[in-house]
Structure formats: structure tokens, C-alpha cells
Amino acid sequence: MKKIFIILTKSSTLLSRLIGWVTKDEYTHSSISFNSTLQPMYSAGRKYTFSMFPASLKVEPFTEGFYKYYNRSKMGVYYLEVSEEAYNKTKNYVETMVAKKLPFNGIGLLLCKTKIDYPRKGRFFCSEFVSTALQQSGEIDILKKPNMFRPADFLKIKGIKFVYKGIIKDAVGRDFKDLLVKEEVKDE
């Protein structure tokens, strides 16, 4: 079995605080990674550290840009186990879509929070992108339409497992496979 990592965060930015205020959720942003170091990590996010726009699908490094500046942001790391075929389908989908640098779905983000179902082709907000990617695996049931998916909804996916809770700064350069081994021993 292979592991797909879901990284949930909440920063002190205006947008994150606004989303948190509206949803009352613990996390306001989601990313996906295919490595226990969480790098590379992919999502829909801002191009410039201090400006919400422009934004698009992108690689999100911990050591530069947004996460370097907001490294005290709260984070939770989770994973799903899938077959190698599902892992490869999901990873290929993510890498292909990120290479296209598709634009951010700001309208979709607003409508998701108000529970208005209005999908926009070729545009994604963070949890919409990650849930769509998981859907590509063919093995993960995401429970609702991607354009209605919030970061908190990842915690409801069948089979999701907890890895880490803390701040981004403490995750930089870390390989979480030591925590995965402990979790797998507990499950046996």
C-alpha cells in the first residue's frame, strides 16, 4: 500500500481568519503530498506571500514564500492508504493539473461556504482541488461534490489516519515516516 498525505493548515491571514470565522472549522486550507516529508506539497494558493491574488494551482514549499513567512501556522497531517495504481493515478493527475497553473476559484470558495453548488470548470480552490485529486484514485469516496468540499471534510473520509498536529515550523525538514511506523504498530 502507498500513502497519500493530506495537510490541513490555518494561518493568520485575512482570508484564513474570515473562512475560520464563517465555518468555525479548525483548518482553513488543504494541500496534498505523496511523500512522508510532505515535500513537494500541492494545492491552490497565492502566487505572492502578501497578496491573495493572483492565485493558482501550485507547488507549496515550506522553505520559501507563504509558508516560510507564516511558519507558525497551525497544521494537521493525515494520510490515506491506497493501492500503487490509485497512488499513481492521483499523483499524475495532481502533477498534470499543477503544471497547467489553473486559476484559483474564488467564486467557488465563496459559494462553497454558503453551500451554493456551482462548479466552475478549470478552476479550483484548495479543498476542491485536493478532493478532486483523491477522487481520481478510484478508491477514495470523498462523500460530497468537490466544489462543496471544505478542509474539515477530509477528516470524515473513511480510512483517514492521523499523523501529526503542530505548527509548520516544526514540520520543516522532517520526515514523518517515524510517526507512520508507530501508527501502524498500534493498528496491528
Give a structural overview.
The chain is of the alpha+beta class and 188 residues long. It has one domain: Alpha-Beta Complex (endopeptidase fold (from Nostoc punctiforme)). Helices cover 32% and strands 25% of the residues. The chain is built from six helices and six strands; from the N terminus they run βαβββαβαααβα. It has helices at 14-23, 65-69, 84-99, 106-113, 126-136, 177-187, and strands at residues 2-10, 29-33, 41-48, 51-59, 74-82, 161-167. The protein has a six-stranded antiparallel β-sheet with strand order 4-3-2-1-5-6, sandwiched between helices. β3 and β4 (51-59) form a beta hairpin. α3 packs across α5. The longest helix has 16 residues, at 84-99. It is globular, with a radius of gyration of 15 Å. The mean pLDDT is 92.
Helix and strand element order: EHEEEHEHHHEH
Overall spatial form: globular
Q: What is the helical fraction, as a range of percent?
A: 25-40%
The number of helical elements comes to 6
Please identify, by name, the CATH architecture: Alpha-Beta Complex
Helix-strand blueprint:
Blueprint: E1 2-10, H1 14-23, E2 29-33, E3 41-48, E4 51-59, H2 65-69, E5 74-82, H3 84-99, H4 106-113, H5 126-136, E6 161-167, H6 177-187
Antiparallel strand pairs: 1-2, 1-5, 2-3, 3-4, 5-6
Helix pairs in contact: 3-5
In short:
With 188 residues, this protein is an alpha+beta fold.
List its traits:
188 residues, alpha+beta, endopeptidase fold (from Nostoc punctiforme), six-stranded antiparallel β-sheet, 6 helices, 32% helix, 25% strand, globular
